[in-house]
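=== RUN LOG ===
request id: a7f3
mode: sequence -> structure
chains: 1
length: 482
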Amino acid sequence: MSDTHVRTVPARTPVSAPHRPASPLLSTLGLVTVLLGAALPMIDFFIVNVALPTIDRDLRAGPALLEMVVAGYGVAYAVFLVVGGRLGDMFGRRRLYLWGLTAFGLTSLACGLAPGAWTLVAARVAQGAAAALLLPQVLATIQATTTGARRAKAVSLYGGTAGVASAVGQVLGGLMVAADLAGTGWRAVFLVNVPIAAVALLLALRSVPETRSPHPSRVDGPGTVLLAVALVSLLLPLTEGRAAGWPVWSWLLPLVFPFAAAAFIAVERRAERTGRTPLVPPSLLRLRSVHSGLTMLLPFSLGFGGFMFVMAVALQDGLRYGPLTAGLSLVPLCVAFFFASLAGPRLVARFGRRVVLTGSLIQAAGLLALALVFRTQWPDVSAPAMAGAMTVLGVGQGLVLPVLLRIVLSELPAAQAGVGGGAMVTTQQAGLALGVATLGTLFLALLPSIGVRDALAIALLAQLATAVLNAGLTFRLPRAVR
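=== RESULT ===
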């Protein structure tokens, strides 16, 4: 199949409602502020991974509750993301950003002060809901207040933030637990969010402009309920079933998913056909840039989420790394991801969608190299021995994720930036949760019979399959990105 370069064309200025001035431009300080707010929810999905053994010892949580500490956040986050985007379109993205920051800071404080395991689970669910209010406003604000090359750069920086923050979460978590600041232990991984959220809140009050949809509409109640049922019925059994011993509900809930998903699609199509505003307008999903980008984003996120979880367990339980060493092992990946993501706009302008193909193949090479390191050097694998493979892996991921996000957003109308961004991040978040559930469950299930080394090798090969799949899906991407 022939390939053509992706053209980067300045986006059209959003049409404002009558008697309403055009949205102001986002300043550099404003962009830094919204990206700081975006980093918090992404960091917190992963920051808890390296702290789980300490939480278990301190709160006597047990495997099922520990899984709920991770899953409760992820499920609430995924369920409410699209709603958060729609609320920003209705009431103002800056306002919802401020509300989300405040709620995220308070729920992080509740997590850090939790006296017991069940309290921590409840606080994590609330924290995930707060993250769902916060994150969609970031992409919607960027989409509504930037155009052309500035938008391309801002989206690439968002993509770099998304990937780096995910890896930094485990690095920061290891540092916090090892430092045991003022005797806080694992609690510091949550308490550190409070001052960061406060600083972001103060900066946002002076630097983030207000934007909203020129034609706001009410939240789609039936669509919201059906989407929540579909996501919960899929994610909850996969993330909690193994830890709970696969009870009856973990087998029955997945049977609900196809019916809930089909009902959601039917309700959304009917709402749009009759002139009402659906939660996720099917017309958006018919845009080639949206559906082809989301089709690739799901397997990429699945592999990434599974990789982070499996590595946290393997390094600590298999190689007996401490939390700090386990976290620092990911630093080469973080650095490589960030610099590769910054190069994305220039590379896309020159080489088009081949950047995503190349990134997927580089990612696959990094996974193979890492699997080879574990296979040949186990159990004496040092962090420097992994650095080369981690760097290659980070370069590949950094060339894929920001470009995919840019493609998904490229044709979204400014008036639907919030709901479009929410749908994209929901796909990303659901993929991360599915990765933890599928690759994590595969790895943990194989441990007793074949050991950490071989279980890790199989998990890495499973992630390799997602990279190869994405390489093939690259040719479905649009030939021009506006």
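=== NOTES ===
Residues 220-278 form one domain.
Residues 1-21 have pLDDT under 50 and may be disordered.
=== END ===
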